[in-house]
Specification:
The structure is a homodimer of 228-residue chains.
Chain A lengths: L17 H10 L1 E5 L4 E3 L7 E7 L2 E6 L5 E7 L4 E2 L2 H4 L7 E4 L3 E7 H10 L1 H27 L2 H16 E4 L2 E4 L5 H8 L3 H14 L2 E4 L2 E4 L2 H9 L2
Helix pairs in contact in A: 3-4, 5-6, 5-8, 6-7
The structure holds a DNA duplex (30 and 30 nucleotides).
Chain lengths: 228, 228
Amino acid sequence: MEENNNNTNNDFLRGLSREERAEIMKCGTAVDLKRGAVLFRQGEPATRTFLVLEGRLKLAKLHEEGKEFLVRYIGPGELTSMIAVLQNREYPVTATAVGATLVAGWDRKRMMELMSEYPELTFNMLHHALERLEELQSRYLELHAEQVEQRVARSLLRIMRQSGRKSGDEIVIDFPISRQELADYTGTTLYTVSRTLSAWEKKGWVRSQSGRIIIVDPHALVLFSEKI
Amino acid sequence: MEENNNNTNNDFLRGLSREERAEIMKCGTAVDLKRGAVLFRQGEPATRTFLVLEGRLKLAKLHEEGKEFLVRYIGPGELTSMIAVLQNREYPVTATAVGATLVAGWDRKRMMELMSEYPELTFNMLHHALERLEELQSRYLELHAEQVEQRVARSLLRIMRQSGRKSGDEIVIDFPISRQELADYTGTTLYTVSRTLSAWEKKGWVRSQSGRIIIVDPHALVLFSEKI
DNA sequence: GTGAATCTTTGCGCCGGCGCAAAGACAGGA
DNA sequence: TCCTGTCTTTGCGCCGGCGCAAAGATTCAC
């Protein structure tokens, strides 16, 4: 199947020697976040770029009056708020710690210096940005072209690939996601997600356990998500 | 109002001297496209990155069986298919010339050399990719949170800002966009777009003329697109 | 200028999925 | 242990907007 959790520290720092990595990390400020803590909020002036070291951040974008779009979950080795480096702008999303999370932050000036000293950094950032762009384009297309249930399946699979952990035959998404969050990720409502997961639970495709979602039959889900 | 057509050659080559620009351009291959010609097709192996010099490209992503997502129109100074540089992948979209269009192309190897010789290039590409990411995130959110008519308004305004030309009090989108294309851009159907534009035409907000859309009252459209 | 091909408009019926409401399940605190 | 707050499930009704169909408008080739 897919590789799980293999973003181990090589996204942003790929291609750099151990010494260079140490040098870069030394310039950063560590930030420790408790479960649910907000690292930055959409609309605040963007001053720092962050790298996740341990744990997981949830990036979400708000719409006027309520609705929310869950952009993605990011884990160790992934960078967020690159926009802060390039121009004086506002954070485009809100970043919340899913569990206890450790991040490193660099301010604009420092990051600019690092980027000109280590061109690999810029390159890695570009690489990452392009991957995300591709993913978002696909999600946009799916949002318009596919039925909700199919999209819920794709969402679960995406999250599973990024943050799944094998446990016997099953795959556990080992942080709690509420129905509401899955709905915000998929672009639907918590009611629809609930109904969908209930149906799949009856079919034996997934299981819920203490707030965590367990994918019992990934293959069935993949087939379902790709059926035309 | 917004600036129109001011992407004049400074997106990708920003921060470089006239000589450096000339040097970079010399390495590229010019490609001349007639109206409707396809520069590259989604799914083909991505070998070259292109810069639009004159005219306009339409970037669209296909879904199995019919549906299409019009990602964006790009004009002079804008780069497409950066993905080709970074990894051996497939083109994620299809690029079609809207009118007669002139582009410059660089292959992977050449572009890599240029990027390490002129770090500004990588930086400019990153900048551009991040802007597009932000825009797409907003569009995704809108697609789920807003009513169709509102989204059609936003689409028209976006295209207007990127490719509008003032003509008296009105703003002309000076290349032909069909109802189908506007629907693909917005994430709806040509029927709905047609109905919506008809209604706005009666209100005197827009006008259609020989395949071109003319925005008569941009302010009304802006208000409508932002109403909660 | 005429005919063919393409694009646009509009009437009409239907349905996916949204969202209220109310009940049920679960977790955490004292 | 019970109580309180939060999350989840499910029944039910409603409606935005999709999509067929057919007519009308416009463009293009020759």
